[in-house]
């Protein structure tokens, strides 16, 4: 299985979709390659950034291969389709030319390659648990996840696994028992933050609960907000 590919698409599409509503892409730094201090300097967070960025690049490659890039550029962007979301990422990076010059650091690629599928599954489960925080998943949310699986070219086995996870989200206590260090805690929180907006009271309460349970500092929470607005 390649759950890392699915995780990358989920991160990219969720963050880009919310960034568009805010009139910008707060996660452009994440998608263009992370570096520096704070969360941006953590290998695990950089790995997530690389996977999200690679999801965008793979989408662009498929568009070019199918000859659909010109059509996408001349057609109105869909407000819900992943194609439109990835177009927003392209705009945030300054278009294809700039994207080509913003290849992530090789260390980020290595960190992504070294991430296990078990670790990726933990973060996918974190996103699913967060999505369930304000109640059951809506039909729109289910269709969005279906689109993400299509974008990731998920196999039949991967789709069955995701269907099982979505219908039977793991209890938070079960997931947190697998968070054995602070770096993983930060990744867990960032993935959860990417999965939800903070506009509902239930989501805000869930994120506050996660911060307390994971030991996320105020500074780390602010940075996560910048990366996953």
Describe this structure in words.
This protein is mainly alpha-helical and 229 residues long. The protein has 14 helices and no strands. The protein has helices at residues 3-21, 28-32, 43-66, 69-74, 82-92, 95-101, 106-114, 117-131, 139-151, 156-167, 172-176, 182-195, 201-214, 218-227.
Please identify the oligomeric state. Answer: single chain
**Helix coverage percent:** over 70%
Mean of pLDDT: 76
**Could you spell the SSE succession in H and E letters?**
HHHHHHHHHHHHHH
The largest pleated sheet is described as:
none
Structural class: mainly alpha
What's the quick description here?
With 229 residues, this protein is mainly α.
List the helices and strands and how they pair.
Elements: H1 3-21, H2 28-32, H3 43-66, H4 69-74, H5 82-92, H6 95-101, H7 106-114, H8 117-131, H9 139-151, H10 156-167, H11 172-176, H12 182-195, H13 201-214, H14 218-227
Helix pairs in contact: 1-3, 1-5, 1-8, 1-9, 3-7, 8-12, 12-13, 12-14
Which key features would you list for this structure?
single chain; 229 residues; mainly alpha
């Amino acid at each position: 299985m390649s759950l890392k590919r699915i995780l990358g698409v989920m991160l990219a599409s969720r963050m880009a979709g919310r960034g568009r509503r805010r009139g910008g892409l707060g996660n452009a730094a994440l998608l263009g390659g992370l570096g520096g201090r704070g969360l941006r300097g953590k290998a695990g967070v950089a790995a997530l950034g690389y996977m999200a960025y690679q999801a965008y690049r793979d989408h662009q490659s498929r568009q070019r291969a199918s000859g659909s890039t010109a059509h996408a550029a001349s057609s109105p962007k869909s407000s819900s389709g992943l194609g439109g979301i990835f177009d927003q990422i392209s705009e945030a990076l300054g278009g294809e030319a700039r994207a080509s010059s913003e290849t992530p650091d090789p260390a980020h690629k290595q960190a992504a390659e070294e991430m296990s599928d078990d670790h990726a599954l933990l973060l996918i489960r974190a996103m699913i648990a967060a999505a369930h925080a304000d109640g059951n998943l809506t039909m729109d949310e289910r269709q969005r996840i279906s689109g993400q699986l299509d974008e990731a070219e998920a196999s039949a086995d991967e789709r069955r696994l995701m269907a099982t996870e979505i219908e039977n989200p793991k209890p938070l206590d079960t997931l947190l028992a697998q968070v054995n260090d602070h770096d993983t805690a930060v990744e867990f929180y960032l993935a959860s933050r990417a999965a939800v907006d903070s506009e509902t009271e239930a989501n805000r309460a869930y994120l506050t609960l996660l911060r307390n349970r994971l030991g996320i500092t105020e500074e780390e929470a602010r940075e996560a907000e910048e990366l996953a607005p």
